[in-house]
Amino acid sequence: MDRHELLTRFLLQQPAPAHRLAIGGLSPAAVLIPIVAREDGLYMLLTRRSPHLRHHAGQISFPGGRQDPGDENLIATALRETEEELGIPARLIEVIGTLNQLNTVSRFEVLPVLGLLEPDYPLTLSPDEVEHAFEVPLDHLLDRRNHIPLTIARGGKQHTIYWIPWQQHFIWGATASMINQLAQHLSKQQFNNMQPGEI
Fold first, then answer.
1. What is the pTM of this model?
2. What is the spatial distance between Cα 68 and Cα 135, in angstroms, rounded to a whole number?
3. How far is residue 84 from each of residues 62, 142, 169, 174, measured CA to CA in Å?
4. Which residues contact 90 (CB under 8 A, 6 or more apart)?
């Protein structure tokens, strides 16, 4: 998949359903799903959270966090958090849209924001939040054969979570759910099944 195909599929389809837990009192938050075009294809930028964090230490994640009162909207939240965590300014990010919000067990309602990074983006990690940042081929992440489902019981109901392996990393939890949602949204089957009136 190249940049043109990504934009075409993303913009012409309705977002796939997101994981929704039946819990209330959620705080608004947003993450950026950063995509960068390289000569050999598209890549997704991911981070490993600092091992010193109180919540989700060491997990693979997207840059993002809780909405601040000064944020104009949740897209602004995702862009602000990306600059704070990774040092990538908003002017180097082309926002192309959002997925549906999903709820997390940490009691956030998270808006995933899809953005295209300039290939020569700077990277200055905030050591308090990010231990490592790395790129993964988008084709690997969108291939749902790489999404390993696991069914767990929570609140008397069955929920499916996903694990996505990449080299020495395991992507799981909310991050894997968002990638799975993006994979459904961009799937060839969904794109090919669209009716003419839906474009």
1. 0.84
2. 28
3. 13, 27, 23, 21
4. 79, 80, 82, 83
> How many residues in the chain?
199
- Residue owning tokens 């993002």: 64
Which residues contact residue 129 at a Cβ distance below 8 angstroms, ignoring those fewer than 6 apart? 49, 50, 53, 84, 85
Cβ–Cβ < 8 Å for 109, 64: no
3-state SS, one letter per residue, for 102-129: EECCCCEEEEEEEEEECCCCCCCCCCCC
Sheet of 148-154: strand order equals: 148-154, 157-166, 169-172
For 153, residues 6+ apart whose C-beta sits below 8 A from its C-beta are: 159
What are the pLDDT digits (tens) for 122-180? 999 998 889 999 999 999 999 989 999 888 776 677 777 888 999 988 898 899 999 99
> Phi and psi (nearest 5°) for 40?
-100, 15
The mean predicted confidence, pLDDT, of the chain is 85
Spatial distance between the Cα atoms of 27 and 71, rounded to a whole number of angstroms: 14
